[in-house]
Amino acid sequence: MTKQAHGPSRSGTRAHRRLPRLRIAIAAAVTFAVAGTAAPAMAAQPEGGDGQPPVPSLSWSDCQGGFECANADVPLDYRDPQGRTITLAVIRKKAPDQARKKGTLFLQPGGPGNSGVDFVRGNYADLPAALRDSFDVFGYDVRGVGRSSPVTCWDDPTYTRAITAAKGAPGPDAYGTAVRQGAAFDQACRDNAGELAPYVGTGYVARDIDLLRQALGEDRLTYYGRSFGSYIGTVYAAMFPERVRALVLDGAYDPEHYANRPYAYDRPQYLALDGAMSRFLDWCEANQDTCGFGDGDPRGAFEKLKADLDANPVPTANGGQANGYTVVYRLMFNINEGKVIWPSLGEALRKAQQRDTTSFLLRPPSPASFDFLNPNIVVECVDKDYPRSPALLKRQVTTNARLAPLLGPAMAYGPPLYDHQHATTCAQWTGEKPSRYAGSFRAKGSAPILVLGTTGDPDTPYQDAVALSRKLDNGRLLTFQAEGHTAFGRSACATDAVTGYLVDLKVPARGTTCADETQPPSATPKVAPPGTTLGELRNGVSDRLDRLGSLH
To answer: Which keywords are on file for this protein (predicted)?
Structure first.
């Protein structure tokens, strides 16, 4: 899950993602260079020995700003380790004093669907100096994402039509429409991404990481993963426990529920998202002068806003339109920033009431969002094992919508989109899933693994972090008492603990709790507060942006 406010801009991927289907190349891929040009999807692989995939050879070249970029060829299907390959785009920035560095730090963003290349490039300057001094900082676009053969099922016009027709307050016939759209998305995946889709699951991503670890000359892995990146790290630790040096899993998943009991995984996310929205509206009611939305009844005003915009959409500058669904979509991601942006959310809702298109809540998803949403759905349909019962699907989806009345109905009955809303698509998914990992998730014999959970997290519920820390044989939980998604970069306490663990392997004491969330300002800020991406949210610059935040 990503997951944070909107979507990374990935220069150079747009032309590539419009290809109708994955193409199999027969020559070595061209090195990924400055602009992030998409490399050919696949390349011939050199022979390896003993049935093992060969370790990629990384040929680094300058790609501006002190970063180096390269391509890594890894097996498309690990059942055929010496067969066809897929090319992964990788990036690093080396520690300034190579003689004193401790190794390489892998950074893994949320999603599935966010670019690891952009994650490293966009966040490096805000990392604590101790991390930049101690490690070469490394990231990559996982298979099916960004510059690494992006998987595309629905094209931009199809997605735009489906989202334009969606409602913030769906009617009684909405469930049937959602099921039909899920089936249409599945068929589009078979038609347009069938050569790649079976192989984008997290089990294969973990194997890719282990080859990259070897390619970088690391005996063991040092890793920070946020949101969905935490699940990737969990699977890596489960598959290669003896190769773990230090893993931080921030905004963690309950992996057993995610992979094997997805309905049990989805419902807490519906409840967590609606809970965060509910707490914001409670604050709005108690702080009317600062919030400025709702005239004393923000809940009633929010329900009326959704219905009014559904009935009379607002024309947007690019010829599109914004309705109640648009508002729900934007809130789902923006609420992740925590209390510090609550005044800005109030202002944006008030502007939406006034049909003022400068409100970022009235910006419909754009093609950059679709770049993210396509792999988000495909990866999770491959990773998760939904029961095939139509009756169970209907019961679960309709119950989720009922239990989460603020944002749940729009998500449950909307087109194929994001995370907890995948059931109507993934329960109809067909085809093999060789890259899916089903457990166990104990990581028996690993070094200590640090799990971070935020008590008011709307995207990865806190109880998931608790469950993971207990499931791991050697897990340690750090709690951040706060609203918003993830902890590193939002809490000085958590950031210091993570840094000490990654650099010096100092594991926080059991029961460690951080309570230093930035509180709501007394008025809508004009610039982004430390530790947030508020500037991008207020201005609507990006459609998804995965940022760690800065505490400087």
So the answer is: Aminopeptidase, Hydrolase, Protease, Signal
Phi–psi pair at 508, nearest 5 degrees:
-60, 150
Contact 456, 430 (CB under 8 A): no
Q: How far apart are CA 240 and CA 173, in angstroms?
A: 47
- Take residue 517 and report the two structure tokens written for it: 């969330």
| Least-confidence region, from 14-18, 322-326, 358-362, 477-481 | 14-18
Indicate the SS3 state at residue 451.
strand
C-alpha pair distances (Å), 144 with each of 88, 258, 399: 9, 20, 32
Provide the 10 A C-beta neighbour count for residue 447.
18
Instruction: Report pLDDT digits (tens) over 464-484.
Output: 999 999 999 999 999 999 999
Residue carrying the six token digits 């951080």: 514
The Cα–Cα gap between 438 and 462 comes to: 22
Length of the chain: 552
- Please write the tens of the pLDDT for every residue from 167-226: 999 988 899 999 999 999 999 999 999 999 999 999 999 999 999 999 999 999 999 999
Instruction: Concatenate the DSSP letters of all residues of 355-381 into one string.
Output: T-TTSGGG----HHHHHHHHHHHHHHH
Q: For residues 168 and 134, is the Cβ–Cβ distance under 8 A?
A: no
Angle between helices 342-353 and 262-286 (to 10 degrees): 80
Q: Which of 552, 426, 548, 427 is CA-nearest to residue 486?
A: 548
Q: Tell me how far apart the alpha carbons of residues 387 and 392 are, in angstroms, rounded to a whole number.
A: 8
Is residue 551 within 8 Å of 492, Cβ to Cβ? Answer: yes
CA-wise closest residue to 65 among 123, 11, 9, 8: 123
Residue 74 DSSP symbol: E
Helices (H) and strands (E) in the chain, counts: 20, 13
Distance, in Å, from the CA atom of 374 to the CA atom of 353, rounded to the nearest integer, reads 31
CA distance 22 to 16: 10
Would you give the DSSP letter of residue 417? Answer: -
Max distance between CA atoms of the chain, in angstroms, equals 71
Q: How many CB atoms lie within 10 A of CB 161?
A: 12
**DSSP 8-state assignment for residue 61:** E
Closest CA to 349 of 427, 287, 295, 294: 294
User: Measured between alpha carbons, how far is 361 from 221 in angstroms, rounded to an integer?
Assistant: 40
Please state the pTM of the whole predicted model: 0.90
